[in-house]
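Researcher: Structure for this, please.
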Amino acid sequence: MTRGMSSDSHQHAGHEAVDAPAAPKDWVFIDTAPQLAAWVAEMRQWLSESPDKRCCLDTEADSLHHYHEKLCLLQVNCAGKYALVDPLAVPHVDELLALLDAHELWFHGADYDLTLLRRTYGWSPRVIRDTQIAARLLGARQFGLAALVKNHFDLDLCKASQKADWSRRPLPPNMLAYAVDDVRYLLPLADRLVAGLREKGREDWFHQSCRSLQDDVAARDKAPRDDPWRVNGCGRLHPQGLALLKGMWDWREGIAHERDLPCFKIMSNKQMVAYAEQFEAGTVPLTPPNGWRPRWKQQFHEIVAAVTASAPSEWPQRPKKTKSRLSDAQRDAIDRLCGQREAIANGLDIEPSLLGSRSTVEDLVVQGDPVTHLMPWQHELLFDAVNQALGLAPAVTTE
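Model: Predicted structure, token format:
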């Protein structure tokens, strides 16, 4: 295999290293529109004749290396025929997307891929299947692709290129081999997982969960966006700390854009919140991180001075939200439903969160609408527990 190696192919200690013969390349790299058109036409013919009509898709991006994240590679598997498509060289891939839409399309951990594909092409596949979801519904606690391939096929997948810069060109052979292996094992893995789902009577759970994932990605894309500088952890800040946080965010955006770097490589969200908390406390003078260049340090001090000199009326305010006030009965109902959820999940040997997160349970009890918050298979399993919880929980009050 190109990405991993079996145990007997490792070199023995003390032996002189020799180059193993290269495996024959069984994939094509596509970086022109004519190449893509020819390959898509070939795959239409191949899939029409193949007993297996399934396709697989994976993506690689450069979010760890550049300010503006870009889709940098499409890895495609059409019933055992592999291609790596360069979207930086071939920006229009409508023919390929139409081909994939005509078939059952498999991913592993599709959430990020679906988000990236919507953002890049405005495209959501007609139907998806996700090996990660399938594995979790069968009780897997380690459900990364490498862990599943190791568990099912006793093959070790190399992760060396996982965080590489996929915008670089030309892509070296080791990265190309890594990329192909991300779709190479999905169909044989899918065969085993689907067989397990059918044996346990959970295939419909799987289909519902895949559809729900697509709906969640679409809903996130359409959801109104709050001020982006209000990062996780800022809810405990007061207006003065929020003012510093916003100043640091705006500065960081400018530097990251100027240097074409991801924002976290300039300053992490956690660091910014910590500085804002220190600023509010006023117990120690703020000093920029060690290793920063002098210009950055000077600008940091200027941000602090500007916020210090500004009027409170200019500071951002904490968002005012109408919070649901839970009654004691509602809290008891939530705890009881969570306990029953965990007991049912343990009996099925799956994670309790697959039956609904705690926040989902809270919303369900407060709003009293299981159809909105649960998939049909979840509702069926929790039916008695949900009815009992809703019977115990009175109407919600707000403040």
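Researcher: Any notable elements?
Model: Residues 1-22, 394-399 have pLDDT under 50 and may be disordered. The beta strands are 4-5, 27-30, 55-61, 71-78, 81-85, 105-107, 128-130, 156-157, 324-325, 397-398.
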